[in-house]
Each structure stands twice: as C-alpha cells, then as structure tokens.
Structures
1.
Amino acid sequence: MAMREIRLVAAFGLLLGFAGAAGGAERFGIGRPATEAEIAAWNIDIDRDGLKLPPGRGRVAHGREIFAAQCAACHGATGEGGLGERLVGGRGTLASAKPVKTVGSFWPYAPTLFDYIRRAMPMNAPQSLSDDDVYAVSGYVLHLNGLAPEDAVFDARSLAAIRMPNRDGFVPDPRPDVKP
Amino acid sequence: MSDSDTTIPARRRFLVQGAAAAVGAVAGSARAEEATPPGIPDGMKAPGADVGSQTYGTPSRFEAGLIRNVPKGLKQYTSASSRSPLQDLDGILTPNGLFYERHHGGIPEIDPARHRLLIHGLVERPLVLTMEDIRRFPSESHIHFLECSGNPGFEAIKGKTASDLVGLVSCAEWTGVRLATVLREAGLKPEAQWVVAEGADSAAMTRSIPIAKCLNDALLVYSQNGERLRPQQGYPLRVFLPGFEGNMSVKWLRRLNVSAEPAYSREETSKYTDLMPDGTARQFTFVMEAKSIITRPSGTQRIAPGFHEITGIAWTGRGRIRGVQVTTDGGKTWQDAVLQEPVLNRALTRFRLPWTGDGAPTTIAGRAIDETGYVQPTFEDLTAVRGLKSFYHNNAVVPWRIAADGEVANGYA
C-alpha cells in the first residue's frame, strides 16, 4: 500500500474514531482468509445455552470410570478436592460465613462444564478426551452433585437441559460501591 | 558465570577471580578502608570486562537477590503466581524479568514462525494472521500497569513485604496494534457485542471482552519495554486491556471469536466473579479500582529515627491518579505526596513524601485518589460492603506498622 493511502486510512480512522471505523471498509489487505475447515478445527467455544455443543454422547457410568482414571488423583475419589478444586457439595453455603464454591453450588451453566473439561482437563493432558468422554465425565460430575441419576446419558440436548442450582446467582458489577 | 569462565583467557580469569575475592572481602575488613577515598578501587587498577562479555546484559551480581517473589510450598506450580519485588524497585517501569506472573496451565514455548491468530465469528472476513502480518499493522506504544484481580485476597493477609501483599501488579511499555485495527480488517458484523479471546496455553485460557473495550484502547501486544514479550508474558502475542483485571489480557493469543454473547467460560463464572455476603456473585467485574502502596519504608525494612523519603506507587484502572495522601500518624492526619511526572493514564504513578520520624511507634499508609474523584477505601469500609469472601478486587489501603525499634511490619497482621 502506498504511503499516501496509509495516511488517508489513518486520518479516516481518527475522524470516525475507532469505534465508527471498525465495521467500515478501510483495510490494509493483511492476512489471508480463514477457511470453514480451519475455523471448525480451532473453534472449541461452547455457549451457556449449549447450542454449540458437539455431537456425541456419554453415560454417567462411563464417566465414573474416566473420573477414577483421569480426575480422581487431583479432585478426590468423589470430587471432594485435593490438589485440584473441590467439585461437589456446598449447596446452600454461598451466603454463609464459610461459602463452598463447587460445580454443584456455584457454576451457573452445565454446558460450561463441557467447555472447560474439553479445553483444559485433565490438567496433565488437556484436549485428550473425546467428545463422548467429555459428555460422560461432565455427566458424572453432575451426578456427584445430585443433578443427574446414575443411569443418565448426556448429549448436547440433555446437558443443555440441566438447570444449575446457582443459575440466577450472578449480578452485574455495581462498582464504584464504596464511598469515602 | 560458568560459561564465561570457560571462554575467557586464563589471565583474565585470574583477574576476574581476584576482583571477586577482593569484593568478597569488603564487608568489614581493612580492604574496605583501602577502597574508600583516597584509596584506589581495584576496578581502577586493571581493565574491566570486555565489551560484549555479556551479549544479553544481566544485573550486577551484587543484585542477585532482586528476584521474583515465588511462593514456597505450593501444592503445584502449573497454575500459580509469582510477584514483583515492589519494595526494591524504583520508578514506575517493571523490568521484564521481574514482571509478576500468573499462569493457569504453565508457560508454553511457542515458535512465532508457527504461531497463527484466527479471527472468526461475527466478522465479514474470517482471517488467519501470522506474526509477520500482525507486525505490519500500524503500531502504538503505551505505558500501562497490569494487575491480577486477586492482589491480595481479603482473608489472612499475612504477608511480610510489599511484594507479599500487593506484588501482583507491574507496569511496562507495551507495543502492538490496536485491537480495533485488526477487527476492522476482518470487518465486524452489526451483532458483534463481545470478543472471546483464547490463549495457546494448556489452559486454553478463555475470556470475553466487551466490544466497547475492544474498539477503545485494547491492544494486541508483541513487545514489552522495547523487546519482544517474554514467554511468561504471552510470547509471541497477547491481548492487553488497560485498567482491566489481568486475567482478561489473554496471553499466547491464538484466537478471537467475535460473538453476540460472552462465552460464560469457567474463568468468568466459577472464577473471577466476586461473591457477596448475600450469596450473589458479581460477574464481569473488569475495572481495577484506584490503589496504592508505600514501598519504602515497608514490611521487613528497619528505619532509624531521622529523615526518610516515604515513597510508593499508585494506580487506577479508571484513568490517571489525581493524588496520593500519606499518613504518618496512624490516620489522624493526611498529607499530599508529590507525584512524579509524567502522571500517565492507567499506569503506575510514583509518589514521594519527605518525612522525619522521631522514633516513636506509628503506622504509615497511603491512599490514592483518581481523576474520577474515587478514593482508595480502608479495609474496614471495603469489607463493610463486600464482606470477606469476594476474594477479587481488594484495593484497600495498606498500613505499615513501625515499631519503637524501627522495624516495619504488615499493619493487617
């Protein structure tokens, strides 16, 4: 791009402010288009409503086996915590002097469990579990919290259908909240 | 050291060792007398080290104690933090090697030639950018602080030094491209409200950034204090959000997903949310509010009666520091400290106050006021509103107790 054009683009950006210019047509022609296949291979984001959950399914019973093999060393045999976070219990404690924040007591959305386990767990080998296994172990953690029966099978629809106990427990940021 | 020992000639090695032995003997010996005027220091009697004897310079070996403050005895260090040694730093810029760390899945080693940034979602033109591509965009440099939102928590504030208490803050000059410029290249669709950033670490760290911040002062950064980012700071590319909690400035950035909604990732639901006494949790608590700490005199230091310059750092995520007030009598009276110019937007600001102590026990503290008029609260006022369980965003005044023997200690403990 010629120097003059760059200056024009910069001046235009300043005139509009960056907010105004962000959707506009001024471009430098840098980078290459991403293909659908590349995006699909990279994008592992799951939304809170579970609309982006992938195909696949897993049984709570299978999740129990995965948990014992892959998770229990850090999170405890029944999710009571250890090197890793406590995952189970704590319902009804959030407003107490000793709140216990777990998947069952604090996490607002079940699909986030799938998102997090898939992207970051187990800590020594993240992104090593199949989607089926992630469904299974997500279901087992929900089962440990009394949020799914032992014979449950989880897939995109049934995971999205779980209503977490603390779903409505979050509020916007009211700060500044402390007056001098 | 061992490298240079094996590469310099024997005669020079002898000189180096001789100098080291002389320096080692300085403490409390006759040689110390010889080195003071009118004696001739050893360094004047023979040439020093050659130009280029260190191809990447390191501090004097007499400063070997100036290191990151790494907690001892943690259960694991993959997801943990180390702190800047605030009490031993001057000015406002943190040396890159002493910048605080907080990683959630360790520090990845990334070859910039193989690194790619994918921009997708609600954009007209999904893009793949190489690091060379990113460096072609118009660049900017800005000095800003970065602070972890849990710095410190609200309970058991038992640290001894300024670093122990508030060492999860650092400040640097950041160079990169405005995120708005890169988003413009991809073309935002009208529904775009959030940008979800993902890191290329083993936590695949994921945070959602409101579009207003993305189009205002957000940066994609590749350099820090003039050199490429250190691996601990996200090499080769990170997000930088001035004034926002550090976790959102996603390191090792590899993907930006432009969305209508936040991701509601684990790090913005079960973590980085602030639990209140009524059991609700504040979510998307981004801004780091005004804060300050006296770094000298501070915990574990010992002062004699007489003149001391009280100095420290102040900062606010809402803009510039307007003033810092210092008390030397336990909060009965407050004096305006002098701010070191230039006072920069969302950067550390150095403050100083000359003080002559009379040796009597007292408590000193500073409180910051920012350009919005916000005043850094006391711990009592802050926790009266938020309780003790919110963990994040403790910006309370830090008191230092000075004992009759001059020992300075944590005023909380």
2.
Amino acid sequence: MTDDKEILEAFKEEGRQDYAFNLLVRKYSRDLYWCIRRMVIDHDEADDLLQNTLIKAWKYLPDFREDCRLYTWLYRIAVNETLNYLKSKRLKTMFSLTGKEKILSERFTADPYFNGDDITRRLYTAIEKLPPKQKVIFTMRYFDDMKFDDIAKALRRTTGSVKASYHHAYVKMQTFLGDSD
Amino acid sequence: MNPFTVPENYFETLEDRLHERIHQPDSRARIFIMRVKPAIMLALMFGVIAGFGWIASKVTGLLYTGPADTDDPIMAMIEEGYLESSFIYAYYDEIDIEEAFTYSLENTVSIDGELAEDLEASLTEDDILEHAYDQTY
C-alpha cells in the first residue's frame, strides 16, 4: 500500500500530479465511497459525491497542511459534501408532490444495487427518515464505530452537540423500528 | 454484511472518469456565463424590486399627484374632467365670449334647430339670457 508521504511528495513535483492523484484514488476511493454510500443509499448519488470529493481533493491538495492523516482530511471533505447534499435534497423533498413515505418505500425496491434482506431494508429505511445531520452522525457512529471526538472534529462541531444529535437519532430510530413491527 | 453493490468495474474505471472531469477545459461560453452571472442576477433583482415598487404605488395610488396646480380655472376644470377637452381649442384661440357660449351650448345641451340657426346668425347676450329664461320657465 502506498505511503501518504509518497503521494504528497509526488503531487508537489511538476508533471507527476496525475500519477500522485491516481495513487490517492486507488488507495482511498473505496473507503470513501462506502462511507458516502451508507449515508445516501443510492449508487448514482454516492458516485457523484465521491467524484466531487476527489476533485476537491485534487484542487485543494496543495493547501493540505499535513496536520492530520490524509484519509482524515479526505473523509472530512466527503462527510461535509454529503451533509450539504442531504440538506439540499431534504429541502427538495419537502416541496415534492410525491409523499415522503412513498419515496422511501420505492427507494430500495427500485435500486438494482441493493440486495439486503428485509431487516436491513427496515434499518436503512429508518435511517433515511432521520434529519441530515443526525443521519450522518448516526451512520458515522453506528457503522464506522467512530469516537464522538473524531466525529466532532470531522464535522467541526463540539463533542457535546454531536453526542446530543446521536442521542436524538438513537431515540428516533427506536421509534421508527418499533413502529414498523 | 454489506447490502450494497456497485456496477461492474466501477472502481477500476473511476480514475479515468475523474481525469476526464479534471482536465475538461471550460468552454468560453461557460466562463462568460460564470463571470456575468452575478451582474445579471443583480440587474434582475433591481428590476424585480422596481417592478414591485411600481405595482405597489399603483395599488396604493401614491403615483397620483392630484389635480394640476394651476391658477387658470378653465385649465383646472378641463384637467378635472368637468369640461370637454376639445373646448381647450376654443379657449386658447381667444374667440369671443359669444362664440364660446355657442360652442358650449352645441356641445353640452340639446337645442332645437331653429335656435341653433339663430345663434349662428347673430347671437347677443340678451338672446342667450332669453333662451335660458324660456328653458327654465
């Protein structure tokens, strides 16, 4: 596996930026993709967000101060990109003529890249009902098993507010999953 | 277990798709639009605000400044709509008072043909007063 240092040094050299960027994409694109995909569910949306994340990385890599791991920096871009997308999407859904429940129920049946069982479908349907910020925090904690401090750093929020959001999300998840029984 | 899958060769083709996007030159039109977009938006915003202001002033009547500020009673009456506007020609041609009355009578009251001929032939103030007396009593 390529070292971060090698990637960063290659990126600084004239004419080797494409090569360095390929190394970065090969090393981190899968992890970033799955992190985004769990939050947005849909493959096409995850693909767009992953590409936007990596293009931002290409653009701003010369400004990377190396005060954290390269993956932490990329992860932060990906999570914030996803959070902004979920917020704008929620706004669009609010004014949509199609009911929210209908959108959620059709989401998994129409997705050719989802092959989870009924329990998994219920779990992700419940997560989909959470507000964007709670959804992102719940996903980071529940699936990626991240510490509250790390989530707070990635989202540039206080640990207290992250804990509170996770608690609200957890209570809502219990209600959603209880209701669907 | 991961319930999600990706299309075949998705990760293998990702690099190419990214390079395509990164090295895609911006078209001149796109650059031009990007540059003038803020100015267009600002101009549209001013246009919309001015439009709303005009509609609001029309609705509330703020644009109506009232009757013209004039010392001339005839002009004021014309502007207020109490006199026919065509009378203004007679007024400013400085025709004499008899002609003015004739004009006014012809245009405002119904008179019989005989009287109209008389008025046209020779009209004095006494004739007018007499006619007015006859019409009244």
3.
Amino acid sequence: MQLFPCPFCGPRDETEFHYGGDAGNTRPDGGDVPIDRWANYLYLRSNPKGAAREIWVHMNCGEFFVMVRDTLTHEVLSSSALGKEHAA
Amino acid sequence: MVRSNYYYPQSVELYGLAHRLYEGLSKDLNYNVMLSQRGMVNLCHSTAEMEVGARTVNAMQISGIDAELFSPEDVRRVAPIYNFSAGARFPVFGGIWQGRAGTARHDAVAWGYARAANRLGVDIIQNCEITDFIIEGGRCRGVQTTRGTIRAERIGMAVAGHSSVLAEKAGFRLPINSYALQACVSEPVKPILDTVVLSPGTGVYVSQSDKGEIVIGGGLDRIPSYAQRGNLPTLETVIAGVLEMFPIFGQLKLMRQWAGIVDVVPDSSPIIGESPLPNLFLNCGWGTGGFKAIPAGGTLLANLLASGKHNDISRPFDLDRFASGRLIDEAAGSGIAH
C-alpha cells in the first residue's frame, strides 16, 4: 500500500484517494468556443511518462488538491492545496 | 481472451472481423495459436442486469454474432464450481453466453505473426527506439531511430502503452490515459473449469489454461501509470473477487502476477486512422481489449498504409470522432469492463 500525502490530513492510504484528471485543464469560457477547443478540453490528454501534475481528491476529507507524481516510479514529488493559480 | 460480445454495430463489425480471422489464424500463419473456443459467460447478478443482458444478446444476434441468454441452470451447467450458495454476494440470475469465444496462446500469436511476416519479407528490428519523426512540408516522411533513419511514404504507429509518448514527439496529443492492468496465474491443477467466466459484480474474469493454471484478470489500477507493475489494493480486490466467485480456489497458490500498461480511451474503443500529422497512421487505444482484436487491427492498419484511406470498418474509429462527438461508448454499451 502506497501512502499519498493529503495537504490537509497528512500521509494516508492510496485507497482513500481518487484521481481527478490533469491539473490546469481549464474549461473553455464563453459561448463561441471552436469544436477543436472543446475536444481538446474534454478528451485530449498529455498523459506524460514521468512527472505529471494531477488533480486528486482525498475522499475522506473531501478536499481536492494538486499532486505532482512520477508516473514511471509512482514517487510523489509534491502535494499542495488548490490555490488561485490552479483554479480549474 | 478471444470474443466479440460487443453492443454497437461498429464494434460488432470490428471485433467480428477479428474473431473470424482468429478462427483461421493457425492455418493462415501456419503456426498453431492454440485457439480454444470453449465459450464464455458474462454473468448477470440481478433482474436489471438480466434485462441489459437480453438487450446485449439481441443486439449481437441482430448483428449476426452468436449469442445466447443463459438461465441460472445454463450457467450451472457450464460452470458448476461457481458460488451458487444462498448467501453468495453475487448470485447468478443468468448470463450472456458466446460459444465461439475462448482463449488462445498469446505467445503463439506473436510468434506466428513474426514468422509469417518474416516469410513475406518484413524486417522486424528489435531494441530499436524511435527518437523522432522526420517531418517535411508538414508531412511525416520517416522516423529517426537509435539505429539510424528510416524513410517511408506512410508510417504506422502501433505502440500500445506508449502512444502518448510517441504522439508528443510527433507534435500532437491523444485522448488517452495510460494505466496498469494486472493479471495473475495460479499453480497448475487438474481440469476444473472448461469455460471463461466473467462477473461484472467483481470485475473479474477467470479461465483455466491448457497447462492447468487458473488465469485471473480484473479491472484497471485506478492510478495513471507507466510502471510495469500493479498496485496491491487492486490485486487484493481481484483476488477477493475470485474467491467470492469460486470459493474452491481458496486453496490455490498464485504463481505469477504481472502488469502491463494499457492505453485507455474515454469511449473504450480503439483509434484507427490518420493522425493529425499527415502520412502518420494510428492503431492505438485498445485499452484492455487488444488481444482479441489483433487480426482486425493489423488488417485495418495495413489497408490504411496501402491505400491511405479508411474502409467501412475502420472509418468510425477515426480520431475525428472526439471532435464530432460520434463516440462508440462500449463501456456504457456492452458494460464490459475496460
């Protein structure tokens, strides 16, 4: 069992967490959004091999946060609360 | 696992083609792929699941694919060792039966194709990494590799588990997340299970290999990953599911457990067609279900490379479906775990 660091509760079992998607994938604004921009937002992913910035939710406390994780080694590089810079 | 129990007509065409080609594959390749059409049952654990099962069976029959709705007695006949006890967590209300489904020896499929390709003059270069794409005038003209340059009129990309990594080198993104998919086998025992049993309740499917090992597969690890190993909690869920389905397997010891990386697409259907980089063609995104489709994926990619155009079977699976919204959502349609 891997431990993931919740910025609010500290290290907890991985099973308490749920993957929420790429960090920084912001929803297009306004009514006149080109189709490709919608497809990009809804479906296309960077899916990096290595360091990835991801949104996770700690299901016990219900908080969403940003975790930077190496997808090859599963090492957690950082974990931080969603700030204004990540508003998504 | 070789099967074609899908819901949407586009999928039925695709996996139906693969299934038919599998039936002649040993002869076509002149290599025994040990196809064993022992049948497969997708269990239904409630009256609601039976209604969905009937809908799936009807859809398959209308599309000309063999399928049968099984009663609990039918399931008991093909899988008597299933947990039919009164207190079973996932009781059997019936199932979706495909008699032509079954198993094949995965190594033999790879070896058979390699030998047949070699005989036709195809060069297979191992341990040779693509480092970059040669792009001239906005079109793909070849690849740079760790062992030199290869130029071609059309280039095909079929790199399960690393599609996004290569797409990034070619300058585009794909609708793919990569996950680990685990499987495990037990020590070999005498014949006890002569069909394939899948329970949507546990998310687990089980069969017995010719050597006698119980072969166990489950759902995806739910953490995006390129690590060629599985996570313990998922393995625990899978094993718990096996014991719920077959309490008799509680005495078995596991011999091997492994994980491979699979490229999962939001609608659980593959991507076949030209990439955003002209002359570069994609055959990817098969998720957890690529093995059953190998002959179709190969045939369709070969057609694309030879003609530069889709045929009727491959067209619905083009990358453009994510902009048009014409998804082929098999996770929702056939309820098959991917």
